[in-house]
Specification:
Blueprint (H helix, E strand, L loop, with lengths): L3 H26 L8 H33 L4 H39 L6
Keywords: Membrane, Transmembrane, Transmembrane helix
């Protein structure tokens, strides 16, 4: 069983990121702050993907600590597992950022096409 201190340590490291992502979702949910068109959907999807990645990272850190403590694996095996999971988390993170960038690119394009948009 993982020590409570370790769990809190893993969670506290990600807490600012989780708070910002949840805050972003709350802001996007308010009627005054809604983005037009597809940019709203992409922005929400990006924030949800990034939030999922942050929570998965906490879960992975806790799980990895448990694996190290209970298995007889070699350092090379630990390194391989850590690299594979790290790569998957990085791909998810990049996907979330890509969705956010897409949301703002579409927003910019939509505002440029609208009659009152910036030119």
């Amino acid at each position: 069983m993982i020590a409570l201190g370790s769990f809190i340590g893993f969670f506290v490291v990600q807490l600012p990121v989780i708070a910002v992502l949840v805050g972003g979702l709350v802001v996007l949910a308010s009627p005054q702050r809604r983005l037009p068109g597809r940019s709203q959907t992409l922005a929400r999807a990006g924030l949800v993907v990034l939030l999922s990645q942050a929570l998965a990272s906490v879960a992975w850190n806790i799980t990895f600590t448990q694996i190290i403590g209970r298995s007889g694996w070699s350092a090379a095996q630990f390194g391989l597992i850590s690299s594979v999971v790290g790569l998957m988390l990085a791909v998810v993170f990049a996907g979330g950022l890509g969705l956010l960038v897409g949301a703002f690119a579409i927003l910019r394009a939509e505002s440029a096409r609208s009659p009152g948009g910036d030119h």
